[in-house]
Amino acid sequence: MALSVLILGGTTEGRELALRCAADRRFRVLLSFAGRTQHIADPGVPHRIGGFGGVEGLLVHLERERHHALVDATHPFAAQMSRHAARAAELVHLPLLRLEGAAWRELPGDRWRVVPGLAEAPAALGGPPRRVFLSIGRLEVGQFASAPQHDYTIRAIDPFVPPLERARVICARGPFELAAELALLERERIEVLVSKNSGTPSTYAKIEAARKLGLPVVMVERPRLPPVETAPDVASALGWLTELHEASSALSSSTLPPSTLRGV
Ligand code: NAP
């Protein structure tokens, strides 16, 4: 019997895992997107778009689709969805794995100013006007209205009108390469970057570029999430799913009812 897996996406790694599962007959996969971006590139696997409607909506979905496992492959800063996933999995005893690499660590040559949340980032830029590179997504840019003296270059997936006077938007979707990041920072004459510590390899090049150019980075720490089992990469997540499939196959060949598989 195929193991039915719901993958909460929003990251390159989530897509990769979904593709690997879809190519494997042991798994039946559904990849879920929040639907924040205007054009979702076809992931090439069965997918759905839009919120579930809180923990209750997620529970309804899990029950209706009879998923056997849940993988939270959302961005480390998508805290609400991760909390909902943890709560729902706990309530129905569904195996849950978070696919999340380690946070980036400061290396020699880095000039980080670490802040606990995005709300503290504008003040960390300091008083004198500077040219700032914001790569924090589109939704939270308004936080920087409290520091209007700076010139902001904002990178986002979709075009939008930033709620900041001195700002321009560059539209691009990762992954990003080091050479291009170096060129961008130099072309825009950037003096300081603001980044979330996502830890994702596909967006690390800007941190490397800042190091090479000796630029400071205001680094926003990850939000605290409920402790759940975590895999650092796609291969480990696939290993976890394989083990789960083996355990569920052993159970389904016995006389136990299918609902028992939910709690493997
Ligand atoms: P969030 O604050 O944690 O979630 C807000 C709500 O959006 C959730 O309660 C849920 O709605 C819905 N949602 C989030 N992820 C979903 C998913 N994969 N499938 C279905 N519904 C989902 O999330 P966010 O920070 O707005 O991020 C939205 C999406 O963008 C996430 O999937 C995340 O992986 C991706 N992303 C976020 C960031 C970031 O910095 N936050 C960066 C890159 C990518 P309901 O309560 O109605 O279920």
How would you describe this protein?
By secondary structure, the chain is of the alpha/beta class. It has two domains: 138 residues, NAD(P)-binding Rossmann-like Domain (Rossmann fold); 109 residues, Rossmann fold. The chain has seven helices and twelve strands. The strands form two sheets. Strands 3-2-1-4-5-12 form a six-stranded parallel β-sheet, with helices on both faces. Helix 3 links the parallel strand 4 and strand 5. Helix 2 packs across helix 3 and helix 5 crosses helix 6. The longest helix is centred in the last third of the chain and has 19 residues. It is elongated, with a radius of gyration of 20 Å. About 3% of the residues have low confidence. It binds NADP nicotinamide-adenine-dinucleotide phosphate. NADP nicotinamide-adenine-dinucleotide phosphate (NAP) binds next to strand 2, helix 2 and helix 3.
What keyword list fits this structure?
six-stranded parallel β-sheet, single chain, 12 strands, 22% strand, 2 domains, binds NADP nicotinamide-adenine-dinucleotide phosphate, Rossmann fold, alpha/beta, 264 residues
How much strand? 15-25%
Structure classification: alpha/beta
Question: What is the second-level CATH architecture of the largest domain?
Answer: 3-Layer(aba) Sandwich
Largest sheet: 6 strands, parallel
- SS summary, helix count: 7
The CATH class designation of the largest domain is Alpha Beta
By CATH's scheme, which homologous superfamily of the largest domain applies? NAD(P)-binding Rossmann-like Domain
Instruction: Give the count of structural domains.
Output: 2
Residue windows where pLDDT falls under 50 for at least 5 positions? 255-261
Helix and strand element order? EHEEHEHEEHEEEHEHEEH
Helix proportion range: 25-40%
What bound compounds does this protein have?
A: NADP nicotinamide-adenine-dinucleotide phosphate
Please list the strands of the largest sheet in the order they lie side by side. 3-2-1-4-5-12
User: What is the approximate shape?
Assistant: elongated
According to DSSP, the number of beta strands is 12
Radius of gyration: 20 Å
Query: Which topology of the largest domain does CATH recognise?
Result: Rossmann fold
Q: Mean pLDDT across all residues, rounded? A: 94
Distance between the termini: 14 Å
